[in-house]
Amino acid sequence: MIKEAVIGTLCGLVVLTIGILIGHFGIEKKSEAVPSWLNDVAKDVDEKIIQQFLSEVDTVQIQENLRELTKVPHLATSPGDEQTVQFVLNRWQDAQTGLDKAWRQEYKVYLSFPDPNNPNKVTVVNQEDSVLFSVREKEKTYYPEQDDPQVVQPYAAYSPAGHARGKLVYANQGKPSDYERLNQTIDLRGTIAITRYGGEGRGAKAINAAAYGVVGVLVYTDPLDINDGLMSDTNETYPHSWYLPPSGVERGSYTKDFGDLLTPYLAAKEETYRIPPEDISGIPPIPTQPIGFEDARSLICELAGDPAPSEWQGGFDCTYNYGGPGFKPTSPFNSSDVKLDIFNQEKIINSSNVMGVITGSVEPDRYVIYGNHRDSWVHGAIDPSSGTSVMLEITRVLGGMVKQGKWRPRRSIIFGSWGAEEFGLIGSAEYTEEYFTKLSERTVGYINVDIAVFANATLRASAMPSMQSVIFQASRQVNAAGSDSTSVYDNWIRYSNRTSPTHGVIPRVGYLNGAGSDYAAFVHYLGIASIDMSYTYDRSKTNARIYPAYHTAYDTFHYASNFIDPGFVGHQAVGRTAGNILIRLADSLLLPFNCSDYAESLEDYLNTAVTSYQTQLQAEGISMEPLKHAVANFRRAAEQLDKVIQSSDLANETPLKVRKINDQLMLMDRAFLNPLAFPDEYGFRHVIWASSSSGKPTFPGLADAFARAESSGSSSDWQKVHYHLSVVSQAIEGAADMLNEVI
Amino acid sequence: MIKEAVIGTLCGLVVLTIGILIGHFGIEKKSEAVPSWLNDVAKDVDEKIIQQFLSEVDTVQIQENLRELTKVPHLATSPGDEQTVQFVLNRWQDAQTGLDKAWRQEYKVYLSFPDPNNPNKVTVVNQEDSVLFSVREKEKTYYPEQDDPQVVQPYAAYSPAGHARGKLVYANQGKPSDYERLNQTIDLRGTIAITRYGGEGRGAKAINAAAYGVVGVLVYTDPLDINDGLMSDTNETYPHSWYLPPSGVERGSYTKDFGDLLTPYLAAKEETYRIPPEDISGIPPIPTQPIGFEDARSLICELAGDPAPSEWQGGFDCTYNYGGPGFKPTSPFNSSDVKLDIFNQEKIINSSNVMGVITGSVEPDRYVIYGNHRDSWVHGAIDPSSGTSVMLEITRVLGGMVKQGKWRPRRSIIFGSWGAEEFGLIGSAEYTEEYFTKLSERTVGYINVDIAVFANATLRASAMPSMQSVIFQASRQVNAAGSDSTSVYDNWIRYSNRTSPTHGVIPRVGYLNGAGSDYAAFVHYLGIASIDMSYTYDRSKTNARIYPAYHTAYDTFHYASNFIDPGFVGHQAVGRTAGNILIRLADSLLLPFNCSDYAESLEDYLNTAVTSYQTQLQAEGISMEPLKHAVANFRRAAEQLDKVIQSSDLANETPLKVRKINDQLMLMDRAFLNPLAFPDEYGFRHVIWASSSSGKPTFPGLADAFARAESSGSSSDWQKVHYHLSVVSQAIEGAADMLNEVI
């Protein structure tokens, strides 16, 4: 009986176990079925994907992209531009390495070109109207590229057509203070001013001049500012080095505002309302033309008058005089005039953006946007094709992973190849005007890589402070250009650093105050967290204002591959870093934004403002307490949000809680927008990063208003300071509210 | 053996079954644990909660709320106002029926009051300065309420203090066309104009007058406009009926813009920048005073001059003449002047909003806001305390369910008891200025119930067209006031209906074009989908402009409970309907917004615009195609989104997909905002619902620009029409983009 009982029990146990196993594994618990999407919504960035991306970014691919993009000049709307449209479209529509979707998007925009049949002329003419000297109309040819008939000859875009003649004066950088100084001893009415690039916006040099009665403006690049003083093309400048040859001329847009000039705040479509061209502000009111330094030397070194002050002196082997006005009695140009004959023509013409998309798997309604312009002045190897070559390499690698089914980002990625940037960031600005609300509500961040390599010494990045940490994280994972042991981060910190109260010594990330490239509309108009990055110089080795072939006919594949980034290792480092950031923005479960770093920047601004302004403001009865209160609130809110994040097990929380925090991080910057803060500046709505003429590293509206009030002393100007203090305080309080507990 | 085998098998089966049960139910499948939040995020509105809410909304509770709120006059910032602050706070902080949190929020705002020590005076004085007639300074007392020392005596808020004297003219409604007509035969310089309420904004009557040199303005309520002609308080008017007694005076704010007048676009805090009061626009430039119709009759019936046209005639038993200017030779007032002595004082003073919150369980970062102002002119039983009584009843029922743990909304609910609405929607406007970005990014909808019952005949609702369907759904579930068989919906459709191309005959939901109550900042400044609702008259029974005791000392508990809504059944119907909508907005898995209904409204607007403008626009070379294209795109996008919704099994989708659709629905209206479209109108940024002086039911900016261009014929005015066409087309395209597939 015992045996039978044991056997029975054993059998019973076996049957019971079988039953348990069947019950547990064999029968699905219908009522508690786990939804298939559960793992997807909780998925974080995959470091293996990052590593695969980094390993696939290839210097030879980038080099071949660049070779293709720079075959012909591709000035906006030219046949060469159309070739690049097709090239980018084909790449993004490629079945193996393309994106989900790519298309062309056109705007009808207002551009300015020289007349190919009537070249602009700058001459010295004597009283009998004989031409004593002519500025060259075309840069010197060293390679066949310079002879391409599609090369647009030097001009100042948006300078009016017209004829101006007068005695020459030298006006330094064409700042208001420069003309004011000249005007103390010279009657500027009816003169022609020659100015050098730098220190002031292109168009402003002419606008400032016209206020004193100057009738025409020349602009040249001084060898001291661009060439570390070197001037000879027999052995010093390009094609022997990266330096600007004597005949090289920086072209450029002479506009103050960005976006299509005829359709402010409206996307420039066929039937869109256009303001009358005579209502455009911020462009030269008088004929203006850029010239090379060889010709500038021929004019400046002949000038009569008192010697200009030492800070006006440049790289020529002569003393820069003010001008009599006009030339020295001993000069062959004695009593001659300088004459400008400008034949620029404005056109309303279609310009194309090329857009491409990878649709997000989990949050398709969140966008990470990566962009660069496609149009150049001439061949534009560095500006912008270095950036486009990098962008196409990033899309090749990511597109390949998508097409192979290896990867799909959590959020959607939009790539923009903008048109007509050189004329004033037009393609990107029109895009943001057309899709304002959609972009504002859905865009996580914008990454701009325009000139990818100014030089190949070190990374340079400007960004919203909240993005500093993701830039650091990505740059630590990438090898510095040409190194296989030092990271981009470790290399960068040697060239440019600062001491952060929180982090100690770290690389210096700049601010996006200006409108230097296509990030402008995203930062200033939309308030979207943005990054602009590139590789750049060793500042201990050159004082060049910018890479010397900038906007000239020498910015070619030959120049880029020989003098800027041989081996394309700088391109590669930028592509890897920017792509790494892009993947992190697109894939991270929690957006990689650090608002405490934003607080640090606001505290910096506040300290500068208090130190610089508080005593005088108190005397005017204006309290800075609301601003201090706002910055302190922002800091507290940022720390509070950090705590919420740290104490959350995000992968196991409801996806709506993660989304809540991500929305706080994403939308915080929108609170800094105020469409009424800078009514005279097109598109500048971000009260923290607007450009400021004061030069002080503090709240720009406050700084400019203070400078004006201090100078005028008028009570209405002090009221404007008070107004800007209220505007910026309310904006910061509003941003803090976005970070605070949502209810 | 067989028996044993059977028993063994049976035992085995029993054991197996036990095993299966243990295995299935007793052991959790660790690897596929279902997160606890899964049901919560998929939960939809619970109809049982709606039914419970409806059953608990109680007429007696509303009546007692109203009795308490109307004990004393509660003019903004007065001691009576503070009593209501405390009352609302106590209710919202109640342990059994309160909200999660409630607090007071103050703004320092610019208000205008009469001087209690120097009453405003309106007199008729003869050439020897003898006073022949004095307008009464105080309304007649029928009940002790009218004698309360806290009753503010009739005045025109923001009329300047000052003394004006001149010959009287009758200027109808004080419209520009009225003064123009008068000015054809009378030199208006130095005159005093008497005008009747209606047809034009309060302050505009004085602004329009001043343009013709008029030096003072009187405003009265004509018995024809308010009392269906009745005038006697011995048997016709209050206290015998709802009609206005002869001495009753409508107080009011004589401002054009809403929000604190000194701090446009800035929250009015202690240190906020304030514009100089002399820079305020849109308020009377000349002394202005409202008077009762008894006194107005004494003046108007004595006027000399030609008889005014028939459409200027009112309810008095005399012919309304223009005025000589001045009185008839046969009048005792012959050759006398009318004199205004106004002693109004402006103050910058703290005004309180009371805020209360129920935190959402699943999406706390989505807000449904329900609000009404708290301040009145006198006792304000109807305006606004009928609305506040209803709001407090809604919070009592919902708060009770929350405190009992029976319910918590999916989204957060914010209740706002706004201050200083009567002076220009100030409390709500300052709130939206302070929290602009947070509210803009997170608010699903705003429900405004100010005057809950103008009368108790039928529901009246104005809203964004997308909210029509939820209003209908809710109103079908509620019994009409005083009925237990007819729904609010079925009752409503009898009083006011229209034929929709989609839905056939339906109740007419109005548009929120104006700034009549606290919805203004939410609609016009923030672009948030909003509803304003109340019960109102049977228009077949009265032509009253508004309920007759509006803004007088007769708007008391006695008046409300005897003549507007005996039994409080109208209040109850409104509370049930508004609360039902509130719960649906807060709890629905999918937001109950119908964008196809919005498309129908845009198509209506488009049809009107094409019919009215196209021929002339074509003649001016302006194409309407972009507008047609935009509206067609919006319709297509709305239908596409409807399809996505219909084909989705939302309860089983990822919560982020539901959120994506809800964000599309919530944020679509933001695309209609353009801060530059109406630069002269404070806070008007919504290009579809802005107010328009044209009166045409179409796009307001286009309509006004067209009217101006048609009248002036100037080419720059036609350019402005083209501009507005582009603005509105781009806005509608942007809204369509929000509804389109997100990438």
TrEMBL record, chains A, B:
Which UniProt keywords are given for this protein, alphabetically ordered? Glycoprotein, Hydrolase, Membrane, Metal-binding, Metalloprotease, Protease, Transmembrane, Transmembrane helix, Zinc
This protein's membrane topology, according to the annotation, is:
Single-pass type II membrane protein
Cite a single GO BP annotation: proteolysis
Q: Which residues form the PA domain?
A: 165-252
Recorded GO cellular component terms are: plasma membrane
Residue intervals of the Peptidase M28 domain: 353-560
List all membrane-crossing ranges: 7-27
Q: Name one Pfam family in it.
A: Peptidase_M28
Subcellular location, in the record's words? Cell membrane
Which residue numbers delimit the Transferrin receptor-like dimerisation domain? 622-740
Query: Is Ubl conjugation given among the entry's keywords?
Result: no
Predominant cellular place of this UniProt entry's protein: membrane
The similarity annotation says: Belongs to the peptidase M28 family. M28B subfamily.
The protein depicted here goes by the name N-acetylated alpha-linked acidic dipeptidase like 1
Give the species this sequence originates from.
Fundulus heteroclitus (Killifish)
